[in-house]
Specification:
alpha+beta, Elongation Factor Tu (Ef-tu), domain 3, six-stranded mixed sheet, six-stranded antiparallel sheet, binds flavin-adenine dinucleotide
Amino acid sequence: MLTIIGGGLAGSEAAWQAAQRGIQVKLYEMRPEVETGAHTGSHLAELVCSNSLGSDLADRAPGVLKNELRRMGSLLLDCASRTAVPAGGALAVDRHEFARLVTTRIEEHPNIEIVRQEVTAIPQKPTIIASGPLTSSSLSRAIANLTGQDHLYFFDAISPIVTLESINMEVAYRASRYDRGEQEGGDYLNGPMTETEYSAFVEALLEAERIELKSFEKQLENGVKAGMHTFFEGCLPVEVIAQRGPNTLAFGPLRPVGLIDPRTGKRPHAVVQLRQDDLAGTLYNLVGFQTNLKFPEQRRVFRMIPGLEEAEFARYGQMHRNTFIFAPVLLRPTLQYRQRPDLFFAGQITGVEGYAGNIATGLLAGWNAARHLQGQEPIQLPKETMLGALCHYITHASAADFQPMKANFGLLPPLNGVGKGRRNKRRRMEMYAERAMRALDGFLHTV
Ligand SMILES: Cc1cc2nc3c(=O)[nH]c(=O)nc-3n(C[C@H](O)[C@H](O)[C@H](O)COP(=O)(O)OP(=O)(O)OC[C@H]3O[C@@H](n4cnc5c(N)ncnc54)[C@H](O)[C@@H]3O)c2cc1C
């Protein structure tokens, strides 16, 4: 018997995968008895915001993940394809039909029992925790007791991440403030701004459209104690700092002191710093740029930063309630809790972002929980696959700046035999995709 907590994207997929392998599953879902504040109905697998699961193009990172899910027999991808609405190269669904279909398929499975009840303690038997970013407060407390308070986060204030290859290095330059870095030439990439560029940037930032905050996030923004976490000054959105005065950013996160531009020999008026985000050095985050701007607005406004004119965003900045554990020390790439091999985590709570990533971790956790219950070793997917790379990232990310991550090519091991630079980008994406499918097919033949 397997207990699964949470009938969202990850929990529903996990239940299906385990049940298909002959395991009896009890799937606990607290809605409609207890609300999350974002879900509106009682169906399983409700999409809380956008109705798009992202790109479905075979040579895009989210598309690669979806093709892997299809090859591994994902229930939710199948339901998504059956309820798809036209969306260009993306996979978007009729959200009501999608959730209704997933609920029906799960309800009809002879090995799954759905229990409409909030779980408030972690069961001492084989369990998958898939309670999502809006995990109820009693369960959050139970998880914090298990992991230690320092290893459970309740709120996300994250800066955007761009790919290194999309940064124009003829404008951006490598330097650490006062040459204090470890790497030759400096640890940071720097986008230098003239006074005119800075003023135009601040103006655009202040006028840009923001995501409307939900009431619990408003509370956090006001610094009101909410649950176990309060919003603090160091996490203010960049646009809120800008609101405090025209020069606040130039004296704050964009201060140029100690960052002479080697091309002019002068100190710029302001500097946006980018810090390496992954071990491979392919991703860089914009330091101090946690933000609430809408995603298209982030693309428009942040591309005004010199050097980022054609930046590609591997992740956008966000501020929202988000319960997630510190996976680098707590989880194995099999999604097992290190201290308890019969306990698994899946979905957003692992630190994997996005609908498709949450479905994917649900698939792996369900499969591995079934293997564990059947006395087999849980599997670890190859790092060349998108799901394998995501699981590797969350369980090996640097402790200092671990943040939730969605599917992107920067997570995959580098390719041999194809040039760098923008000219070869298309070919590189195709090669990443082909290699991922080969790696997955080869692996699936062995299990
Ligand atoms: C407001 C918001 C908007 C988002 N928008 C997007 C977006 O547009 N695109 C995107 O790709 N990602 C988005 N995400 C991120 C993420 O992809 C989704 O939240 C996704 O649904 C997470 O999947 P999950 O299975 O981990 O959690 P969920 O789908 O939230 O499922 C968790 C389930 O567990 C239940 N639950 C919680 N606690 C308990 C308990 N104690 N006992 C029993 N049941 C419990 C909840 O009711 C819920 O049904 C958003 C997140 C948030 C918070």
